[in-house]
Amino acid sequence: VFLLFFTTHEELQTLDVDDAFFSTPEDIAARALKPQGGVNFIRTFKKQAEDQAVNLPPNLDELVQNATYVQSPDNLVWQYFYNLKGSAEHPFPGGIFQWARYRRNTTGLNETEKIFSESLNKHENTLTLATLRIFSNGLGQPHFHFNANEMGYVISGCGQAGVILSGVTANFNIGIGDVIFFPVGTQHYLKSVCDEDLLLILAYSTGNQLETLRMNSYFHGTADHILAQLFFKKQDEFQKFPKPAK
């Protein structure tokens, strides 16, 4: 079972090998592929009623005798592959992130991680991927992303999501199999409300380093005399807010 994300807001356009083959005039296919038997061999191929990208033939064992693959070298594999589950965990108050992403600062990355990071950044329309685990009753605090839309899929647990914008606040429950979407610049939060952890896989529409601003960061980054004017509270009261951890 695969969970797939595609970088398009248009209707997804896909061309499978068999669709391309049967859409090609038989004489053109014969001249391009040059099979034994020429165009007569091409005519022995029959288009199936079902989409073969989805449905495997019932006699697959008879059709395929050898389906082994030789492992490619690491410098090729890690341009297209990343062991997210086995990667470093990045804890925060309330949960854990694991990331498949581009990082400008490669300090601490091993060679295969560097290959994957650089590969993501070479392509204009790519994705940053993450798993997010929020512990039972934990909170992923309000934040927004400057440079990416965000989509997520709930793998386990249950929770509450919220969108906080000027004049607009939306709160809704999320559970296994649900998909969430937060457009770029949309402040949002996630909260676990079950006895078990809330686990999601998240995709961000950027191959650059993800830029995120969290509520505690921008609140603490605002001068306390400005906050005093905004909230009609004494300036020294804002010293009660702790500095966010790095």
UniProtKB/TrEMBL annotation:
<dbReference type="InterPro" id="IPR053297">
    <property type="entry name" value="Dynactin-associated"/>
</dbReference>
<dbReference type="GO" id="GO:0005794">
    <property type="term" value="C:Golgi apparatus"/>
</dbReference>
<dbReference type="InterPro" id="IPR011051">
    <property type="entry name" value="RmlC_Cupin_sf"/>
</dbReference>
<dbReference type="Pfam" id="PF00190">
    <property type="entry name" value="Cupin_1"/>
</dbReference>
<dbReference type="InterPro" id="IPR006045">
    <property type="entry name" value="Cupin_1"/>
</dbReference>
<feature type="domain" description="Cupin type-1">
    <location>
        <begin position="107"/>
        <end position="239"/>
    </location>
</feature>
<dbReference type="InterPro" id="IPR014710">
    <property type="entry name" value="RmlC-like_jellyroll"/>
</dbReference>
<dbReference type="GO" id="GO:0005886">
    <property type="term" value="C:plasma membrane"/>
</dbReference>
<protein>
    <submittedName>
        <fullName>GL25 protein</fullName>
    </submittedName>
</protein>
